[in-house]
UniProtKB/TrEMBL annotation, chain A:
It comes from the Eukaryota. PROSITE patterns: PR55_1, PR55_2. This is Serine/threonine-protein phosphatase 2A 55 kDa regulatory subunit B. InterPro entries: PP2A_PR55, PP2A_PR55_CS, WD40/YVTN_repeat-like_dom_sf, WD40_repeat_dom_sf, WD40_rpt. Coiled coil: none annotated. One of its GO terms (molecular function) is protein phosphatase regulator activity. Keywords: Repeat, WD repeat. Belongs to the phosphatase 2A regulatory subunit B family. SMART domains: WD40.
From TrEMBL, chain B:
One of its GO terms (cellular component) is nucleus. Residues 30-77 form the SERTA domain. Residues 129-145 have a biased composition (Polar residues). InterPro entries: E2F-SERTA_domain_protein, SERTA_dom. This is CDCA4 protein. Residues 112-145 are annotated as: Disordered. The gene is Cdca4. Pfam families: SERTA. It comes from the Eukaryota. PANTHER family: CELL DIVISION CYCLE ASSOCIATED PROTEIN 4/SERTA DOMAIN-CONTAINING PROTEIN 2, CELL DIVISION CYCLE-ASSOCIATED PROTEIN 4.
Length: 460, 249
């Protein structure tokens, strides 16, 4: 496993890019979520047009040992359609907010995809054989004249071109008044939660006509509303534990065994405000846009506008580590508020887990890296072991396979060195909100506005 | 990515000011910047009412920012209530615009700490705010000399300052109440009180799927009366009410 053992920094190389080349971005093509499945063989993206595209990794070619399999389109389907809420006279966007894969139990793959209001369970199955030799039907499906049937035969399966079919198996609707921002599958693999701005519901994967409300922060008087739910996730090992984050920068950990309605948290994670940095924008930039448990479940990571924080579940009063993503934007908050960029919701992710190696290696030697996106198509990685960080760019320039990506640097103030980019030159329309890390290997998927970049570490 | 025209206008504005208001420095004071932020926030809340349901998180964050500013202004004593004057026309043109925020950071407000504000030129375009901010800047830069004169007076008469804010607030309020529909804000005059307790109605409908059409309408109409009963007596109540309606939407 390359990278195990301290001090081996990963060298990232461009591998592939998916999506349209031209700069004119069709609104429907804007990527809104990216997720690897549990084996990493499949990579799903959702877009603003309600479509899901799944890529499959090629089986590794023994002769091409210098690179891992490429990802090619496996299945494309329309998950959600635009709807119109006649009561409110408002459109319901078909944009896919989140995709979450279920662990594979049989030949078929299952994923949950959600828009603002409705969650759907999709079954993706392969068909590479078809029955031929019916007695009553022709091959094209037309019925034969019964009088022409003189013999009986048993239909047999014959190989056919691989067909990948996606079919909706469950539709979980009408349970959310507000916009769904998160879905998370429980470690029992039977239930999952869906969270909107004010409520969190618990579902059983088999049951679509009812769900349990487990968190409700809607005030009796909407005048008093000052805080919303921004993200939620189940604990990876403990099936009764979940967390949810808020727009005020707090994270609440809840235990479903405590009561039916978890409106009293078991733990409240909040860092006290730094008075020297106080401004009218303090609250907005403290709003948490993503929360992710580590694979062990001992830590969780949160993303707010300017930083990534690592929390130890045993310590509520402050994070154990804080990493600045783009601190140079702190002096630009007013402009970012004006052009709405300050409300951008960046996601974050951990590196893939490596359970086999864990028994033989010290924990501190295991790669421990977190990744998140920024502007100008930059994305950032923070190595928790070495405390080093790197800024890379997802762009079509300099994208030769197996060429190591050049680190980028933003010049905050003063003289700009060669190859540095000044803050004022950053393109705030080019934002990387969604990134994903292969669960087992050093392969990452990074979504720009309408392109999906795949990078892998340099092997050998 | 740079909006060149905009930059030039900012500079032009400054040149004009120096020409016409000799001796008076065009420095955005903390109060002015705060006012500017307040106006910008109010505009943002208005712009929320579009075809797609607005982002509740964003609305809440902006509303909280408005509250913060209002609280600080109340503590400062710069928040004063004057009788609202009825206006027939939207006075967006009198909003202290982003033009003020464009001023160079070299000119710091004298004596007053400017917390966390960026006073650098508005260099980048944002997709959403592009049209509105460009319009605003165009409108305001044309009137830059006039605005600044007005602002000089406003600095002397803080009541006048509050009057503008009050007018903006009133417009939002009036439109929401459907008292005097303005053509400018007709867009969200429809948005209205149906949001006031839509959630109650919806949950009612969800739990009882057999609920008739008429029942739905009855709940609908019963909630609207509560909204129209409030009136603008105290500024705090008023702001809360507006914020609640806007956030609700």
């Amino acid at each position: 496993f390359s990278g195990a053992g301290g001090g081996n920094d990963i060298q990232w190389c461009f591998s592939q890019v998916k999506g349209a080349v031209d700069d004119d971005v069709a609104e429907a093509d804007i990527i809104s979520t990216v997720e690897f499945n549990h084996s990493g063989e499949l990579l799903a993206t959702g877009d603003k047009g309600g479509r899901v595209v799944i890529f499959q990794q090629e089986q590794e070619n023994k002769t091409q040992s210098h690179s891992r399999g490429e990802y090619n389109v496996y299945s494309t389907f329309q998950s959600h359609e635009p709807e119109f809420d006649y009561l409110k006279s408002l459109e319901i966007e078909e944009k896919i907010n989140k995709i979450r894969w279920l662990p594979q139990k049989n030949a078929a793959q299952f994923l949950l995809s959600t828009n603002d209001k409705t969650i759907k369970l999709w079954k993706i199955s392969e068909r590479d054989k078809r029955p031929e030799g019916y007695n009553l039907k022709e091959e094209d499906g037309r019925y034969r004249d019964p009088t022409t049937v003189t013999t009986l035969r048993v239909p047999v399966f014959r190989p056919m071109d691989l067909m990948v079919e996606a079919s909706p198996r469950r539709i979980f609707a009408n349970a959310h008044t507000y916009h769904i921002n998160s879905i998370s599958i429980n470690s029992d693999y039977e239930t999952y939660l869906s969270a909107d701005d004010l409520r969190i519901n618990l579902w059983h994967l088999e049951i679509t006509d009812r769900s349990f409300n487990i968190v409700d922060i809607k005030p009796a008087n909407m005048e008093e509303l000052t805080e919303v739910i921004t993200a939620a996730e189940f604990h990876p090992n403990s099936c009764n534990t979940f967390v949810y984050s808020s727009s005020k920068g707090t994270i609440r950990l809840c235990d479903m065994r405590a009561s039916a309605l978890c409106d009293r948290h078991s733990k409240l994670f909040e860092e006290p405000e730094d008075p020297s940095n106080r401004s009218f924008f303090s609250e907005i930039i403290s709003s948490i846009s993503d929360v992710k448990f580590s694979h062990s479940g001992r830590y969780m990571m949160t993303r707010d506008y300017l930083s990534v924080k690592i929390w130890d579940l045993n310590m509520e009063n402050r994070p154990v580590e804080t990493y600045q993503v783009h601190e140079y934007l702190r002096s630009k908050l007013c402009s970012l508020y004006e052009n709405d960029c300050i409300f951008d919701k960046f996601e974050c992710c951990w590196n893939g887990s490596d359970r086999q190696v864990k028994f033989f290696t010290r924990t501190s030697d295991l790669p421990n890296i977190v990744m998140t996106g920024s502007y100008n198509n930059f994305f950032r990685m923070f190595d928790r072991n070495t405390k080093r960080d790197i800024t890379l760019e997802a762009s079509r320039e300099n994208n030769k396979p197996r060429t190591v990506l050049k680190p980028r640097k933003v010049c905050a103030s003063g003289k700009r060195k060669k190859d540095e980019i000044s803050v004022d030159s950053l393109d705030f329309n080019k934002k990387i909100l969604h990134t994903a890390w292969h669960p087992k290997e050093n392969i990452i998927a990074v979504a720009t506005t309408n392109n999906l970049y795949i990078f892998q570490d340099k092997m050998n | 990515m740079f909006v060149r025209g905009l930059k030039r206008k900012c500079f032009d504005g400054e040149e004009d000011i120096e020409g016409t208001l000799a001796g008076i420095k065009a420095i955005p004071s903390y109060n002015l910047q705060r006012q500017s932020l307040l106006d910008m926030s109010l505009v943002k809340l208005q712009l929320c009412h579009m075809l797609v349901e607005p982002n509740l998180c964003r609305s809440v964050l902006i509303a909280n920012t408005v509250r913060q500013i209002q609280e600080e202004m109340t503590q400062d004593g710069t928040w004063q209530m004057i009788n609202p004057q009825s206006t027939g026309q939207a006075s967006l043109d009198r909003l202290v615009s982003t033009d003020i925020l464009c001023r160079s950071s070299r000119e710091q407000a004298e004596g007053k700490h400017v917390p966390g504000y960026s006073t650098f030129n508005k260099d980048f375009e944002g997709d959403q705010a592009q049209d509105s901010s460009e319009t605003m800047s165009t409108a305001s830069s044309v009137q830059a000399p006039r605005n600044l004169q007005g602002h000089v007076w406003e600095m002397e008469n803080p009541q006048e300052n509050k009057g503008n804010f009050q007018k903006s607030l009133d417009q939002i309020f009036e439109t929401l109440e459907n008292k005097s529909p303005n053509s400018v804000e007709d867009l969200f005059s429809e948005v209205d009180n149906s949001y006031y307790d839509l959630d109650t109605m919806l949950t009612g409908m969800m739990s009882n799927t057999k609920m008739g059409h008429c029942d739905g309408l009855e709940t609908f109409s019963s909630t609207t009366t509560t909204a129209s009963n409030s009136n603008c007596k105290s500024d705090l109540n008023e702001l809360d009410h507006i914020v609640e309606i806007l956030v609700e939407s």
